[in-house]
Amino acid sequence: MKKHIVIGVSGGIAAYKALDIVSGLRKRDIGINVILTKNACEFVTPLSFQTLSNNYVVTDTFQEPKAWEVEHISLAKKASLILIAPATANVIGKVANGIADDMLTTTIMAARCPIVFAPAMNTNMYNNPIVQENIQFLRSKGYYFIEPESGWLACGDLGKGKLPKPEVIIEEVLKHMNQNQDLEGKNILVTAGPTVEAIDPMRYITNHSSGKMGYAIAQQAAVRGASVKLISGPTHLQCPPYVEKIGIQSAVDMQQAVNANFQWADIIIKAAAVADYRPIEESKHKIKKANQDITLTLTRNPDILQELGRKKANKILVGFAAETKDLISYAKEKIMKKNLDFIVANNINEKGAGFKEDTNVVSIIDKEGNINHYPMMSKVELANIILDKIKDRSAIMNSFR
Ligand code: CTP
């Protein structure tokens, strides 16, 4: 199927450069639809974009609201990628705050394809902490950014904020398009969140897992075209679009759900923090207090990942290791014991790592003993690194078409 890009042009002096981007992408046989914001129409004309894209151009200026209400959904569905170039502080701020009040922002909100912003603005605006926070926030949610260049800006200031050359933007766009849908045809099973082990109808044992890492993996795998099932303990997170969620409570529930989907899965990623022990007995009734101390006897839960490792055959198996010391040696032990392809190890006491954070700091160790250490990054970025590694392994195992 022919690739299709929606290019959103917002109102900045660099808007004219989007003409070269449109023409460069068209030469590569990519279908283009351009959306001009109302302010962009002050800098460039719809007619120029219509001529270069050989397609109708959508603006908010002349169309009935009714027209774009429907149009934004069809454009969002059609797009393999949305590029916003130039992206003003205004459009970045709107998307970061969930505002969808025109054709471009409603299309972005309705899309599930990769979205790439190419910011261009005055250097003081770009460096403004609010703009930087919005960019960080959007990155953590899986949006991509092309760094602006430094130089003399249209306003006469010197600094960062220039839209990179059209060739640079086209290169970045093509890179994201190739990555797009690269997991199509793969069935990926992800586990996430904590498990909850009941003591009685009122009380339970659990851990601090937020589920953020597993949900980010499920979300990015779906964006990249995989069929994704997410087996999750209780979390406050929303199931990502196009992901099938199977909610569970205890480790035993998780074991059953994983086993039921074992045949289906080509790849299993166990990001869940599974409780190793559960109360030996779940009291049917609330345990009443007494004067003496009580002892809670715990029994071992199944090690789900270890069981998967025994029967894995040619499936790819990825584990996580949450440690507070001796990270690498414990992680290496877990690879061997659980027969994993690779393990993602993090020290939960390290700054920027840990359950509740949007970021993580990890080392990835594979079964051949290769170790890669990564700096602090968003869980979404890390999700893509993990998926890239899986893709590489899968290619080696010759299971990719
Ligand atoms: N895991 C599992 N079933 C368990 C315990 C852990 O499937 N009962 C999986 C986790 O989902 C994770 C990996 O095994 O991918 C490692 O989990 P972790 O809690 O770090 O280690 P444990 O194997 O439980 O060992 P320990 O608690 O002694 O560190």
Strand order of the largest sheet: 13-12-9-14-17-18-20-21
What is the CATH topology assignment of the largest domain?
Rossmann fold
What is the β-strand count? 22
Shape: elongated
Bound ions, cofactors and other small molecules, one mention each: cytidine-5'-triphosphate
Helix content: 25-40%
* Helical/strand content category: alpha/beta
Average predicted confidence as pLDDT: 92
- Work out the count of structural domains: 2
Tell me the layout of helices and strands.
Blueprint: E1 4-9, H1 17-27, E2 31-36, H2 46-53, E3 57-59, H3 65-78, E4 81-87, H4 89-96, H5 103-110, E5 115-119, H6 123-127, H7 129-140, E6 144-145, E7 149-152, E8 158-162, H8 166-179, E9 187-192, E10 197-198, E11 204-205, H9 212-223, E12 227-232, E13 243-247, H10 251-260, E14 267-270, E15 277-279, E16 298-300, H11 304-311, E17 316-323, H12 327-338, E18 342-347, E19 359-360, E20 363-366, E21 371-373, E22 377-378, H13 379-396
Parallel strand pairs: 1-2, 1-4, 2-3, 4-5, 5-6, 9-12, 9-14, 12-13, 14-17, 17-18
Antiparallel strand pairs: 7-8, 10-11, 15-16, 18-20, 19-22, 20-21
Helix pairs in contact: 1-2, 1-8, 3-5, 4-7, 9-13
The protein binds cytidine-5'-triphosphate (CTP).
